[in-house]
Amino acid sequence: MTDVTSDIEAGEAVVSAASPVDDGLVAELVARARAGGVKLTGEGGLLQQLTKRVLESALEGELTDHLGHEPGGRAEGGRENYRNGHRSKTVITESGPVEIAVPRDRAGSFEPQLVKKRQRRLGGVDEMVLSLSAKGLTHGEISAHLAEVYGAEISKSTISTITDSVMAGMTEWQNRPLDSVYPVVFIDCVNVKVRDGHVANRPVYMAVAVTAEGHRDILGLWIGDGGEGAKYWLQVLTEIKNRGAADVLMLVCDGLTGLPDAVNTVWPATIVQTCVVHLLRNSFRYAARQDWEKIAKTLRPVYTAPTEEAALERFVEFTEAWGGKYPAIVRLWEAAWAEFVPFLQFDVEIRKIVCTTNAIESINARIRKAVRARGHFPTDQAALKCVYLAVMSLDPTGTGRKRWTMRWKAALQAFDITFDGRLTAGRR
Q: Region (Disordered) spans which residues (predicted)?
């Protein structure tokens, strides 16, 4: 153990001075640790020892900069302040709890930055807690996981405090400036359960835009009570516009009450499109399961028709075939017809993109996974925080961003032609 510790101390200067870290030194330390029976991870392991030494070395360097002289040296103009021993402090790190010796100065004016006063966790631990929370783990599960894997005792209240720290970032994110023009904005919702006297469903609405470059941009999150109308949507869309979104070419949604009227008020030239997939799903609610396949087959010619006139003819045929048995389905399509037909006027590149909100189904799936693990939330704000964390953890590798961009490449070219250059003009 002594030899390994000596090697760590000898290697500190190399670790702090070299970038990147000397691979040969790291390999030698690992080999010596194994030869000496020292574990690489866990309590008393090599990684924990390295963390301790590097933190203490960095803190000593901070104090040297603060005092203006090395240990035993004198500052210019006298030695008004000097080193005054150390105090022991345990911090929670990604390597587990580490006890470090924090240097002190006589005047008490030293404010360490790497491990600040009263700080008990390094930043990596907070990030780990936020990541686990975004994946749907409850506070109790996160506490148990950290204790089992890292030997770190973090209470549920502390975890709640860590996750609460994202609220300021969420507010800043929700109010950030937006692009001046978006080819398409999708609006959909995920229901969460909130305990407000009694457990009730609350819709969390999400606006997801496609940028002119083909990137995904989540514009914001809003929580409602399920009774939202035109006034509510006018407020939401006005907020988006005030953040810089002067024009939206198309807005795709799932028949949200009052939304089309609000869109026409905020962006008069925007086309509102009902999600065809949601329209089909809603149709099946009024039919017996044994008829679903037949109904889907009869409706397919309606939403794949080359023109609005042809779609109307096919819908008349559907009405004749199924209107007597399922009049509610006919009324559903008649009520949604004005928002259903707009996409029929476009080329296939645009049609297959805007006829559904499937573009955000993967996001919804991640959110549902996170909220399902919680069961229900004590407040609307707690529910919104969970959804925000899930959204911020999307696509950590960036591969989804690349797929999204490739998917939209052809459609964006068609958009600029179809909408007479509004997309290009809005970017100038």
A: 62-85
